Amino acid sequence: MPIQRVIEIPKRKKEDNNQSTKKNTAADAAAAEKGSNTSILTKEEEQLLASLTQEQRVKQSDEYKTKANKYFGEQKHDLAIDEYTKAIAFNPTAILYSNRSFSYFKKEFFVLALEDALKATQLDPMYVKGYYRLGQANMALGNYDDAKANFATVVKKFPTDAEGKQKLKMVTTLIKKKAFEEAIQCSNESPYLSLDIDSMAVESSYQGPHFEGEEITLEFIKEMIGYMKSQKLLHKKYVMKILKKSYELFTKLPTLVDIDKETSKKITICGDTHGQFYDLLHIFELNGFPSEDKPYLFNGDFVDRGSWSFEVIITLLSFKLLYPNHMHLTRGNHESIEMNRFYGFTGEVLHKYSEKVHDLFTDLFVWFPLAFVLDNDYLVVHGGLFGKDGVTLDDIRKLNRAQPDSTENELVQCLLWSDPQTNNGIAPSSRGVGVYFGPDVTRKFLKQNNLCGVIRSHEVKADGYQVDDEGSVITIFSAPNYCDQSGNLGAFINFTDSTVKFTTFSEVDHPNLPPMFYQKN
Ligand SMILES: [Mn+2]
Questions:
Q1: What letter does residue 192 receive in the DSSP assignment?
Q2: Alpha-carbon gap, residue 362 to 100, rounded angstroms
Q3: Domain CATH number, residue 70
Q4: What separation in Å is there between the alpha carbon of 331 and the centre of ligand 1?
Q5: 131 found inside a domain
Q6: Strand pairing report for 473-476 and 465-468
């Protein structure tokens, strides 16, 4: 299998933080201005727009809309957003804003989704889908009370709408469940405590591998991978056993894990894998299985999107159990019940196993560490840095990551959700959670914490990786042809004593299931 490309750059030096950072230029300001302008019309299109009668504009808008809807159906959301934007420029309607809102939602730009949904309801207060989009965006942002109000509006305005009633009921149940979970967690009750694995039977008809004894073995993992690769399900007893042992392991880990020099200088770092099990196995083919000589760090977003999220996470957890000091997993923004409900993992686990197994995953995810530091040099987090100055590594260490409200903590949100920007300074994120942070913010943080760089994931990149600001920020993304349609390469990083080496690779074949296959609505 061809390796596309290997690129090696020197490790960054801490002294580089002293060099003057990029200054914002007039061109940057103009670019920022342009970026905030939603019009994407070409000059010709602008002229066309000016020359048309209202009737002609409506017709032209419909043409863009047809194209946009087609792209949406093909899950090409970037292209759909462009076409909806043009359609809106020619003739803004509630339907167009509502549809673009859904595209933004698919891209996880929740603030933009919310804004568009709001415009839809303003343009046409009787357009029911606008309220659905509003409710959906609010739910993803964790604004359950607002979402409840949105669905209540549907029920009030459209008393015969069955879906509205059902959604209102769902969000009301969620609010109750959340309050209940918070109460339970405060008393330190976990679904793991009542888990009795020994009493579970394995039917004689089960053909798969058996996890016997206390310690997981490489033989078991290899057999399990082969079994799952042929699309068979590991027995739920062993799933629960892996989860329980993982829970015992992860609850003992600190929020920020320091990785020693010996491990750091040969570690492999992978970014988002997002349920692309066959591509994960390809990484192991290219780079070798995890072992004490081949340490790995998988930097979050193991689940959602791809339809083999279960297989990805159970494989990674198994290696974590086998090599606890040489296999590291960071929490991503998708290791969260809120995201899992919308982006596939919940539906997948309910289909393959049960609500109980799903609850066990949810309870485990909150214990994944939020950050790693490689040999006092590089900070590794899924998202990025913070919306305020002066945050120290000790502040991260002190975060109480598994509290029910910890995802509402600003620092936790930034670690999981932030993205770098090319302009200096801090800007609100279109995602609605976390921030955009500029190179000056990064350098200040690095200098204050005596680090040389930040390695993060969270954004799809054409080459699978991106080096920004002379290496002060590195993005790594390991899901090639993300969602079967992005056309991007995947990449992983190999560290050596003095260099950071990127290997890029393209996607491999997988069984014929689309992304989010098990997701209901
Ligand atoms: Mn992410």
A1: T
A2: 30
A3: 1.25.40.10
A4: 9
A5: yes
A6: antiparallel
Nearest partner of 437 among 409, 406, 413, judged by Cα: 413
Cβ pair 332, 338 in contact under 8 A: no
The span from the CA of 448 to the CA of 441, in Å, is 11
DSSP assignment of 12-68 equals PPGGGGGSPPPPPPHHHHHHHHHHH------HHHHHHHHHS-HHHHHHHHHHHHHHH
Measured in Å, residue 333 CA sits from the centre of ligand 1 at: 5
Residues 172, 288, single domain; the answer is no
Query: Looking at the 3D structure of the chain, how many domains does it have?
Result: 2
Distance CA 60, CA 92 (A): 12
CA 218, CA 230: separation in Å to the nearest integer?
A: 19
Do 241 and 149 share a structural domain?
Answer: no
Active-site entry in 274, 326, 328, 334: 334
For residue 332, report the distance from its CA to the centre of ligand 1, in Å. 6
Q: Report the amino acid identity of residue 404.
A: P
Q: Same structural domain for residues 318 and 240?
A: yes
288-345 pLDDT, tens digit each: 999 999 999 999 999 999 999 999 999 999 999 999 999 999 999 999 988 998 899 9
Q: Do 264 and 377 meet the contact criterion of CB atoms below 8 Å apart?
A: yes
Decide if 204 contacts 234 (C-beta within 8 A): no
Residues 268 and 130 in one domain: no
Looking at the structure, tell me whether residues 152 and 98 fall in a common domain: yes
Provide the domain limits for residue 319: 3-15+219-505
Question: How many Cβ atoms from other residues are within 10 Å of residue 334's Cβ?
Answer: 27
Taking alpha carbons only, the member of 111, 4, 22 closest to residue 462 is 4
Q: Give the whole-angstrom CA distance, residue 118 versus residue 149.
A: 13
pTM over 0.85: yes
Query: Is 334 an annotated catalytic residue?
Result: yes
Distance 183 CA to ligand 1 centre (A): 28
Residue 412 CA, ligand 1 centroid: distance in Å: 13
Amino acid at 392: T
Q: What distance in Å separates the CA atoms of residue 98 and residue 104, rounded to the nearest whole number?
A: 10
Q: Model confidence over 241-293: pLDDT tens digits?
A: 999 999 999 999 999 999 999 999 999 999 999 999 999 999 999 999 999 99
